[in-house]
Write a structure and sequence with these properties.
alpha/beta; six-stranded parallel sheet; 14 strands; 34% helix
């Protein structure tokens, strides 16, 4: 089986290498969508497929996968037969797909122009029921009979490495800052009143985001996250003397160590638009063995409501502060959240997710069952109707 995977949409993190996700010393931050693309490619290769990834990173052959410059996609796609063309986020690549036996569009973000390409797309891959329903509610041209569900995963090896003992009252925030970091920074003074030695470590490569906001503002443009960006930058500076620290991104293995060395993860998710279809950040917190405070935003209630301390939106600073103080000081609550979270994380390894993608492909391409006896995650019921709860 020959697989073409296209990551044309992924440009934010620069010239990264797929080995960055396995290197305990790599300083390069690579986000969830790119990680999902690489781990899915590795899953196909592990199951014996010939796999090519076209992307904006470094040319390489790694773990049986050939990583090539995005500019090579058109030449290879129009000259080589391939069994599956899997595009991450970008539907326009299907304009060059006459030699593809099957075409899948996988979503990590929650926006797309997929509808106008529906006639040449065989299946849509979503990471949650909420994400599928949200996309369909905004794009009625999507054929719901084509929906497949496959979750994201995590490399559990990152949470088996040596690390320093946890700092009990250290909180870590390691998701995109535009999705609610301002709430946590607003609540911070009240948290420090109750727990005077509390620390907050914000880890995310937000400098490109803040640079874009400033450049656009200088040009007269106001983005939908401009106000949040300016507030986050201001509060990080103002609170620097109150136990708040900021690290402008790091590699996945160093990040895992920082997470395991913290007392809790707090992610008061509140995006400006439907955004969070899964949240690998929350899954990382569960795998790290620390309690997680979040909200019921987007897919978070569906996926993590039973293993995290979730707040209803709109986020209130007083309620957020009380929840953070509780997970820092209530030993019974901490133990319960940690136990349930680690159990959930153990079920979502990238190896298992990669096998799911492979088995689903085989089931679609061939009349016989997938090679593995494990059933692929598929959103179609026996009647052929999608199980996703779609809006009226």
């Amino acid at each position: 089986m020959r697989i073409f995977i296209v990551g044309a949409f992924y440009t934010y993190w620069g010239n990264w290498h797929p080995s960055d996700m396995d290197n305990p010393d790599s300083p390069n931050q690579v986000a969830g969508g790119e990680t999902a693309m690489v781990k899915t490619a590795e899953g196909f290769a592990r199951n014996g497929c010939e796999v090519y990834v076209f992307y904006h990173g470094q040319t390489a052959r790694y773990k049986g996968v050939d990583y090539l410059p995005i500019g090579m996609y058109e030449v290879m796609a129009t000259n080589l037969e391939h069994d599956l063309l899997l595009s991450w986020e970008e539907p326009r690549v299907f304009n060059i797909a006459s030699r593809s036996k099957m075409r899948w569009l996988a979503f990590q973000c929650n926006h797309s122009e997929a509808g106008i390409f529906d006639h040449i797309i065989d299946n849509y891959i979503f990471v949650s029921q909420w994400q599928a329903a949200s996309m369909v509610s905004r794009d009625r041209t999507l054929d719901t009979r084509k929906i497949l569900l496959c979750p994201n995963g995590i490399d559990l090896r990152r949470y088996e490495q040596a690390h320093q003992p946890p700092v009990p009252h250290r909180i870590i925030h390691s998701s995109s800052p535009d999705r609610g970091l301002h709430h946590l920074l607003r609540a911070w003074p009240k948290i420090r009143e109750a727990v005077p030695d509390a620390e907050l470590l914000c880890v995310y490569k937000m400098s490109p985001w803040l640079k874009i906001i400033k450049e656009r503002a200088d040009q007269g443009w106001i983005l939908n996250t401009t106000d949040r960006g300016m507030e986050v930058a201001r509060l990080l500076e103002e609170l620097a003397g109150q136990g708040v620290h900021y690290l402008d991104g790091t590699g996945q293995w160093p990040l895992a160590r920082l997470q395991m060395e913290s007392g809790a993860m707090v992610y008061p998710c509140d995006p400006v638009a439907p955004t969070e279809g899964f949240s690998i950040s929350i899954l990382e917190g569960l795998a790290a063995g620390i309690p997680v405070v979040s909200t019921d935003a987007d897919a978070l209630g569906e996926l993590w409501g039973d293993v995290t301390l979730q707040l209803k939106r709109p986020v209130q600073p007083e309620e957020l502060a009380d929840a953070v103080v509780a997970v820092l000081t209530d030993d019974s609550l901490r133990a319960d959240l940690i136990a349930r979270g680690k159990e959930r994380a153990s079920l979502l390894s990238w190896d298992a997710v990669g096998d799911t993608f492979y088995n689903t492909m085989m089931a679609k391409l061939l009349p016989e069952p997938p090679r593995s006896e494990e059933k692929a995650v598929d959103s179609e019921s026996s009647s052929g109707e999608p199980q996703v709860q779609l809006p009226d």
